[in-house]
Amino acid sequence: MIVSMQEKATEEQIFAVIEVMEESGVNVHRTTGATQTILAGVGPTAGLDLTKFEVLPGVLNVHRISSPYKLAGRAFRPEGTVVEFPNGATIGGKQVAVIAGPCAIENREQIFTIAACAKAAGAGFLRGGAFKPRSSPYAFQGLGIPGLQLMHEAAQANGLLTVSEVMEISQIEAMLPYTDCFQVGARNMQNFNLLRELGLIRKPVLLKRGIAATIEELLLSSEYIMSGGNYDVILCERGIRTYETATRNTMDIAAIPVVHMLSHLPIVGDPSHGTGRRDMVGSMAKAAVAAGADAILVEIHPNADKAVSDAAQTLFFDQFEKLMVELRVVAEAVGRTL
Ligand code: PEP
Ligand code: MN
């Protein structure tokens, strides 16, 4: 259930409503927006008489939520979520964020060169995998924490934030000091134990859509994180598996407006994994921004064709720089900045 408080509701009134909700056996998640406080009650609300809450002082209205996700639904934060990072960067606001970096952190020189390029072109986030989910167990599996330390150093030297994939619960603690945003990869979107654990930390989580997941399943997975109290979830459309073989995955651009309609969470477009081909990354990045993406995630590398993983979809620096110039124009055309 969602209890929307009146704009002028006092803290006292809000606490009183929370108390009655808790007495009724529901778990209360509070969000305080610019103008209004919303209280989401999660739990056995089916038999509750909602008028009991409607008559409380300060309450604007109360309704039941029919969708299976309660906290990820638009009604929890009608104005949308803006995820804020410690340096002031945001994902979900007017500015479209750019997350750029290699598929995998390979060595010191590689990640420092990439960080400098990402910064110069205007990106705010440096990405790179230290733990790589590879289809083959014999493929490069990543440098682990030492690699992440290198990326953190490179990011700090350039005033960037880091995004890196966490594959299992045991990696979270070791990653914390070097990671500003934890990525959950497509293959782990329904690793519910991992999601629950990420709900307990207080750092943003970038949750990628599973290879064969519906948008509803993606939102339900975000609910696992949010139900632990971590509301800083950023969704990511990275393409899904369909019968089409011309591209590595089929990038579902329509998922972007659908997510914005159903949820308050920001959504990132990932045209690198979405297409698997560097000649198409630019088109789909622009399409994603035009469709309302709150950020773009792109793989870049100085020797893109020799990258140890995802080489075919990785952009050379000059391609990335050109794309950034074009993205600025598209962003402006849809009322955003880059
Ligand atoms: C990645 O970002 O490099 C990655 C492995 O992504 P995905 O989980 O979308 O395949
Ligand atoms: Mn990759």
Could you provide a short overview of the structure?
By secondary structure, the chain is α/β, with parallel strands linked by helices.
Structure description:
α5 links the parallel β9 and β10. The longest helix is centred in the last third of the chain and has 17 residues, at 317-333. The chain has eleven helices and 14 strands. α3 packs parallel to α4 (145-158) and α10 runs parallel beside α11. It has 338 residues and is an alpha/beta fold. The model has no long low-confidence stretch (mean pLDDT 97). It has helices spanning 11-23, 51-54, 108-121, 145-158, 169-175, 192-198, 215-226, 255-262, 271-275, 278-290, 317-333, and strands at residues 2-5, 27-32, 37-42, 59-63, 83-84, 90-91, 97-101, 125-127, 161-165, 181-184, 205-208, 233-237, 267-269, 295-299. An eight-stranded parallel barrel has the order 7-8-9-10-11-12-13-14, surrounded by five helices. It has a four-stranded antiparallel sheet with strand order 2-3-1-4. Strands 5-6 form a two-stranded antiparallel sheet. The protein is elongated, with a radius of gyration of 21 Å. Manganese (II) ion (MN) binds next to loops.
